[in-house]
Amino acid sequence: TKEEVAPTLEAVQNIQSISQALQKSKENYNAKTVEQERLRKEGATQRDVDKAGVKAKKATETYKSYVEKYATAKSEFELKMAETAQRFQDIEENHILHMKEIIRSYSQSVEETHVQIGEVHNEFVRNIENTSEESLIQKLSESKGTGKERPGPIEFEECNTAIATEGAKPRKRKTFGIPGRRKDKDTDSTESTEVEAANTANGAPPGYYGSIDIQNANVPQVDAEGFCIRPEVNENDILSPASSCSHCCGLDLGCLLYAFYFP
Q: Which residues of the chain are modeled with pLDDT < 70?
């Protein structure tokens, strides 16, 4: 729009400058005319009166020319201003129409929203009216209940000793027992195992599968605390490869070493 109304700006500037020049020429014309009339009344020489008449005539022509210029500039200014004002009016009308359309669309949206809110509200009221206390309690009972059938009576059942004993039977614990040695803990569960192992081994080391003379077997002596009494053994007899164990059961060097490290 600024580019379209550029000639109007020129017309405004032109009429402003012409108006100023017209005002100055009018003042000059009035001054020269008054000066000529004064000289004529005062009886000045004809030469001075003629000079004043020439200046007055020139001022009159200048003033008339600016009047004509002003008329032309005024016509052009009015035309340009009318076109520009119409252009601005069209812009404002389009803007107002656009804003009215936006407001109308907004009002329609608000109205539709209120209608939908009213429908939802009416549906909500209908649902509340159609919902009774009995139905709510019934739904709660169905969701939280465990069933509609009552459980039957509970009868007395005889105890089955075989099944009860089998279920309560403790598991046996495997123990590692050394013949002739007694532990402080679990004496009840390991005592029979130690006695049985001592009677079976008769002082023989593990892994020995030879014949054992039960009657002449030399059973190790046990002190009051249950530990075997180590026999006095000569170191030469121990280190000798052909030596035999005379303090135990007549076995070889392996039996002697067993009795030495595991009394």
A: 166-220, 222, 226, 228, 230-263
